[in-house]
Amino acid sequence: MVTIDPLVLRHLADLQPLLYWLDEDPLEPESHSALIGDVTTDLCIVGAGYTGLWTALLAKERNPEREVVIIEQRETGAGASGRNGGFCNSSLTHGFVNGYARFKGEMETIERLGRENLDQIEETIKRYKINCNWERTGELRVAVAPWQLEGMKEEAALRNLYGDNVEFLTQQEIQARVKSPKYVGALFDHDGTALVDPARLVWGLEKACLSLGVKIYENSKVDWLEYMGDEVIVHSSYGTIKAKKVALATNVFKSLIRSARKYVIPVYDYQLVTEPLTPAQRESIGWKDREGISDAGNQFHYYRLTQEGCILWGGYEAIYNFRGKVRQEYEFSADTYATLADNFLKTFPQLEGISFTHGWGGAIDTCTRFAPFWGTSHSGRVAYVMGYTGLGVGATRFGAATMLDLLDGLDTERTQLKMVRKKPLPFPPEPLRYLFILITQWSINRADEHEGRRNLWLKLLDRVGLGFDS
Questions:
Q1: Most CB atoms closer than 10 Å: which of 53, 287, 303, 399?
Q2: DSSP label of 156
């Protein structure tokens, strides 16, 4: 049980366990029927989140004659795609620093492809007239302790050499943008992040897919794949799909390719949303340009303004459950909400008294390199991508395009990347996996408390390329 001041807890009195993006939105589409009987198709996509929808849309744009079917175990966007914070970032590697540490020789190409990918998402939204509150606001990564300033100027200079548009802000400069007593400096990425309503983006992509002839089946869990000659049979509860190619977009859910399961674990992330700010409250914090914000600790928050003038506040703790279980009851965590509220009020004490109205959680698919990876099976007839680690709103389009390249047998700039050709190191089996994650999380928390100093455990993980980040 987390010990939090009762004066903080009263801000949670009106909290409802509701997903903010789905709360009475008139744009939510009608549901689709389950798969009953047997169908055939050129391409079957398992999973109707961002990755699955982008794969379907790109497949039809490349070849309008190709028959494409999506099969989803729940509803379209029911997983991470409909419950994230709506940060659509150009990074394909969970941030420049992580990518530079792992793919230094390719970062110029990766960064360019990431910027092109973000531009292409924006172009698609305009072309299909997707109403998803797209805002190209940029993002502030704020330092909330002096030690976090170390290297920020060097990082800005290096990223600009690689084509990004990043500016170091002093304490005075960041306070002029957003007023918090905790901010001591920041990095401002001017155009590498857009804010979006994630559920509306899902629905818009769904509508675009349907307009091109994609067929979607919902509430149809895929149990197993059967390989028969040049085809793959996708088995669901009440029917089958016989396909020439299969794309797996299953995120945190157990992969249908057994050999891929050891590379990914689910960790739970939580978010709160406040009631709409009054004009006086908004004036007290500034934030006139509505940038997305994240802080620079190892355990970090991300936050943004919604179209309704609320603050979405999430992150900090990433919770792993023994054996990597994914359950609906894990989507609510009273202790985590209390921690989030406490840290919110320390960041914006001028908003004392504000109520949090919505709270929810969801599972993130993370891997040991914190960036997506790809794979194929059965002579290239089945492909998968996963491991986005919470920065997938933008990267899923790139992941889908690359997975489609692999299925189509194309030799492209994407498929030539070491990032695409090599997999991360696997996680150890249970119970070592659980102990490994707990020790790493404890070490990361101590590093934040001791000016970023990494203990021997974290240094060892850095050396061998393993790790776990919240």
A1: 53
A2: H
